[in-house]
Amino acid sequence: MYGTVARVKIDPANLEQVRSLATSMDKAPGQIARYVYQMDADPGDLYLVAVFESREAYWANADSPEQHQRYMQLRALLLADPEWHDGEIVDSHT
């Protein structure tokens, strides 16, 4: 499995818009899961986690025009560019 963890900064007043946008997005091909964490210490700090079946599926999605459109919709709600941290998932428990 492969994926990304991204830290994003929002105006907490935009949280419902971010939730609505996330809810409207279908899973991308090869995507297993998506999680969004809102930090207790700072409600404007969100961590997005996307899990894909493989590195190839992740990058096929990341490089697609459809994902670029989804990203642009999300970026319009953010205070700054996300901090992306991509990598291989080496352990999980569900």
**Considering DSSP H and I runs of 4 or more, what fraction of the residues is helical?**
25-40%
CATH class: Alpha Beta
Given as residue ranges, the uncertain stretches (5+ residues, pLDDT < 50) are none
CA-atom Rg in angstroms? 13 Å
Distance between the termini: 14 Å
User: What name is given to the CATH topology?
Assistant: Alpha-Beta Plaits
Q: How many distinct folded domains? A: 1
Short description:
Helices cover 31% and strands 32% of the residues.
Notes on the protein architecture:
It is a single chain. The protein has 94 residues and is an alpha+beta fold. It has one domain (2-88): Alpha-Beta Plaits. It is built from three helices and four strands; from the N terminus they run βαββααβ. It has a four-stranded antiparallel beta sheet. Strand 2 (31-38) and strand 3 (45-52) form a beta hairpin.
Jot down its keywords.
Alpha-Beta Plaits; alpha+beta; single chain; 31% helix; four-stranded antiparallel sheet; 94 residues
List the helices and strands and how they pair.
Layout: E1 2-9, H1 15-24, E2 31-38, E3 45-52, H2 55-62, H3 65-75, E4 83-88
Antiparallel strand pairs: 1-3, 1-4, 2-3
